[in-house]
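Table S2 (continued). Query chain:
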Amino acid sequence: MQNHEINGLFTDLSIIKGIGNQTYEKYCRLLGKDRVRIVDLLWHFPNKIIQRNNITKIKDLIEGEVQTVCGKIEKHRKGFRNAPHQFDIYDGTGILSLIYFKLPFYMESKLKIGDEKYISGKVKKTGLKTQMAHPDLLLSLDEFSSQRKFEPIYSLTAGLSNKQIIQTIENIFEFIDGLELFIEWHSDTFLQKNNWKKITETFKDIHLPNEDYFNDSNNNPIKRLAYDEILINQIKIEHIRRIRQKSNGISMFRENSIIDELRNELAFELSETQKKAISEIYTDMAKPNQMIRLLQGDVGSGKTIVSFFAGLKCIISKHQFALMAPTEILAKQHFDNFKKFTSQSNIKCCLLTSNTPIEARKEISKKISNGEVDAIIGTHSLFQEKIIYKNLGLVIIDEQHRFGVHQRLSLQKKSIAGKADLLLMTATPIPRTLIQIRYGDIEVSDLKDLPNKRKIETTIISTSKLKKLIDRLNNICSNKNKIFWVCPQILTNDSSNMSVNDRYKFLKEHMRHNISIIHGKMSEKEKDGQMIDFLRDKTNVLVATSVIEVGIDIKAANIIVIENANNFGLSQIHQLRGRVGRNDQKSWCILLHDNNLNEISKGRLKIIKESSDGYKIATEDMLIRGYGDIFGYRQSGFKDFKALNENLISELGEKAEHDGKLMLDRILNDDEYKSKYKRLFDFYEAHEYKYIIS
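Corresponding output:
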């Protein structure tokens, strides 16, 4: 990042006043990062905003709402044994009971009979009584007059309060005020026309609000940031569209009996939507235009076999096809399955990953360049500069959301004049509006039915019942009942989250079965060894991070335990659950949680328990968490965006598409604009800009 005024926001949070080592670790835990920068906390938006200065009469208080009253302390009933401390507050219209189950020593001096206080917190009504337990604020008149009128409310982590986050945010803006002037990418005229502010002022309005912008969509400052995100994608899409328009695609119209022969050799009947998707893909491949098609389907809907038929069509048309997967484990699985699929033919296939030995890589590269191999399967290694294809005709990207737009373009460019057809695959449901914003005029095939997929019984269990669970698993675990045990992190940095390493040690002590372990910090050789032990029945339990989330197909595994399930996104849990239920045995998904679940978390886990429809799960999860949960585990394809959601796409998409075309013209023809809009890409860490200005 070259712009030093931008660099100021990308410096480490530790330079901000009040951030010591312990506080810094809490922010790392809150944001799920090993290192936190100032900008990372700025992207951690409030969930809601509370108007603290809106005084409500006690008689008018509403159950479940966070409200503020002003009244006099009239009575104190001291707590004893299991009874709480109770203070009666009277404002002339009614009595509010303040409840403290544990009264901190410092609070006693703030709660004297006869004092008048401003009190704000969540209202609870029990019978005729109106109560407020452990209020958020208890202030004198002087304290209340200096209190923020509109208080942003953030998601928290253990040991970090809302007040601390607000104080840190205030210190951040004090730091920003000391930086040199931040140069905008948008002109003042453009911002004024749209009633938007400059980028740092926009963040200030989000975090230190003077109004409840969640209830006023016209003045919501987040819209400006969402527009920028759409604009970035529209500039990228328009650039790719122009590249595509410069050349035709490859017509693949050859017919060959091998397709029917291999279809008849399958051990199962293709579903109707699989047949339809293959037909749509073949029609596209036969056209002189370049195919760009998205194949999306729920876990277990059979996307991989559809992609194999697409690859087959490419090969019999005398072209090579490349299939790129996000992990080496998945790439190897695709390689083995494709070899099995084409075992009755003379089709040649190779596997290429970052861990392919140097000598083997040289040999494979030679065969790719002279056309000795028809199918090339691997990871990011497939689009390295040294890999030259003889006649690449089709590029298939599995779990496409894990790759950038221009990573896909890099692989396509390796075909003759960049003409290769492109098939993207995803198991994460993506709304139609987002598809158009992300990919432009892409065609979509949906796999709706789930062939040969058994229902998975999903249960929600507290970690307090862990011993009983392990006793049960010890009894049913065998070579026919293998177990995945998934944890959210590799090392323990949060007492509320169980790490893979700690759970592995625990299970080795308490289970009667051999156990494997896989996580992202292991070498590919170590991971392969552990996976082979699991596959060959040397172990019956595999403890892992979500590295097994994508596409791992182990038929013998029919039990999955997901630890701290409330910390995963629902689409991610659904993907993990899809790793089991692939044989004729009964299958289980066990969602483990601690005892501190809030109502939203309970509701989200209930969705997973009651539904096996990935589209429905993603949609309902967004409805429950609402617009406020913009940061974190977003569903329905939004997890790569910082501010964008489907509502804002509908509102801002057409404008950003129009603007993106004009801005790309300026970027390509005007050095000043080129430099200016590089700042936009830099700030949102959209590094594909180098492809546009190269």
